[in-house]
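Input.
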Amino acid sequence: MERKKDLKHFRDLEVYQLSFKSAIRIFEITKTFPSEEKFSLTDQIRRSSRSVCSNLAEGWRKRKYKAVFVNKLTDSMQEASETQTWLEFSSSCSYIDNNLFDELDSEYEKIIKMLNSMEMNADKFCF
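Output.
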């Protein structure tokens, strides 16, 4: 786990970097989804994957208030779980193959574990 003193910005967080990279990857992948999915699956998975990052960034700026910080981390974990659900739909509809699903699902499991660790150690991040 990263130590607070080494971090100056939310972009310095390894979990932010991984979630951002994953969201960009999902954006690129969803460009190949059928047009009939534009206003459902495509929009939903893009929104939830981006929300992991945005909730983390919002929480980082509110570290003065531990409860708010923890709440935003929880929101981030929920969005990561939602993204996993949309990935499962994408796989079931054969928009992505099983290998890609497994890879992205594992990335989101790692993201959730990292966020959970931050939540469990919130005092190390708050001031």
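The chain has four helices and no strands.
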